[in-house]
Write a structure and sequence with these properties.
alpha+beta, two-stranded antiparallel ribbon, 8 strands, elongated, disordered N terminus, transmembrane, transmembrane helix, HupE/UreJ family protein, signal, Put_HupE_UreJ
């Protein structure tokens, strides 16, 4: 089939590279907002403050709860973020169903409130149409474990799916091994990032985020190179993707250690994203558990999709050229992200 339509294959490979290279330049930008609500001069007036990344800036105003109207607005820049301040007044005291609909396209946000002497905080899931803030829910007290679990499970899934660098690393694993060897590598990656996520989230380990993000990008380039070597020789750290080459077991053990080490670095990135969601002190343990489960669920869905896609491509004899094209693109992206991130924290 390849010999009959080489031009079509070339166009297909170029399209794949174009799609991969069209990934966001900042591979793991988690656009997190910070929202604060406080009482104003009386029980029916409020001050709402929003801090959002410049990438999510919008000229539109929030949509206030029914029976409320805006009475003031301010806007100013603070570093790479824009801070908005709004005053609004309602014809009623805060009710359980009152919601503010924000206009900013965010991946998630933290929300803190101090209304009528009740302090509360929670994380919020994002979306392209903005974030709905249940300001009335701040008066309802502690949330159920089901509500907490669902919220952080979704946050975990969204973070892995929107983290191009994490997906690129997992894609490399899918190209390096198959079958039980692939399951073992993905498990090693999971062990690594679950451990560092837990330690960093509870501040038992503290490392500066920018250098870690640069090394995460480097890990993609290293794994992409290994996948390309195995593609060309069907031989790599594990003696081949099925682990049947000479010295397969020692090499595979070495490969497992490398993947665990890189997983530790990726987990630090996950911890940074979870911390930006403003998790309440009382919810830290369930938030960590279900955020991590969400990351694993999203990761498994991606691995299953890639495995199925590669199996389908093998049927039409396109798997090997597609693997070469995708790993070349992933390696180039990893190098680009690394240089971009190093330049970013050197200029800071």
């Amino acid at each position: 089939m390849m010999s009959k339509s080489p031009a079509r294959l070339v166009r297909f490979l170029l399209l794949l590279c174009g799609v991969l290279l069209a990934a966001p330049a900042s591979a793991d930008v988690f656009r997190a907002g910070e929202f604060t609500l406080m009482n104003g001069e009386d029980a029916t007036s409020f001050t709402f403050v929003a801090s959002v990344p410049d990438l999510a800036d919008s000229t539109e105003a929030p949509v206030w709860p029914e029976g409320c109207e805006q009475i003031s607005a301010t806007r100013h820049l603070v570093g790479t973020r824009t801070q908005y301040g709004y005053g609004f007044r309602c014809d009623h005291v805060l009710r359980a169903g009152d919601t503010i609909l924000t206009p900013w396209k965010l991946d998630g946000a933290s929300f803190r409130s101090n209304v009528m002497g009740v302090e509360a905080s929670r994380s919020l899931s994002g979306g392209d149409s903005g974030i709905a803030i249940p300001i009335g829910g701040a008066l309802s007290g502690a949330r159920s474990i089901v509500e907490i679990a669902w919220e952080y499970l979704i946050q975990g899934v969204l973070h892995i799916w929107m983290g191009w660098d994490h997906l690129a690393f997992v894609l490399c694993l899918c190209m390096i091994a198959r079958g039980r060897r692939l399951i073992a590598l993905v498990t090693a990656f999971t062990i690594g990032h679950s451990l560092s996520l837990s330690l960093a989230f509870f501040e038992l380990v503290r490392l500066p985020v920018p250098p870690v993000e640069a090394i995460i990008a480097l890990s993609i380039a290293i794994m992409a190179r290994e996948a390309l070597l195995m593609h060309r020789r069907d031989e790599g750290w594990d003696g081949g993707r099925d682990g049947k080459g000479d010295g397969a077991l020692p090499h595979f053990r070495r490969q497992m250690l490398v993947v665990v080490a890189f997983g530790l670095l990726h987990g630090l990135g996950f911890a940074s994203a979870l911390s930006e969601l403003g998790v309440q002190q009382a919810e830290r343990v369930p938030a960590l558990i279900f955020f991590n489960l969400g990351v694993e669920a999203g990761q498994l869905v991606f691995v299953a999709a890639m495995t199925a896609a590669l199996a389908a491509l093998r049927v039409v004899a396109l798997a090997r050229p597609m693997e070469a094209a995708s790993m070349t693109a992933a390696g180039c992206l990893g190098c680009f992200w690394m240089v971009e991130r190093i330049a970013g924290f050197l200029q800071a």
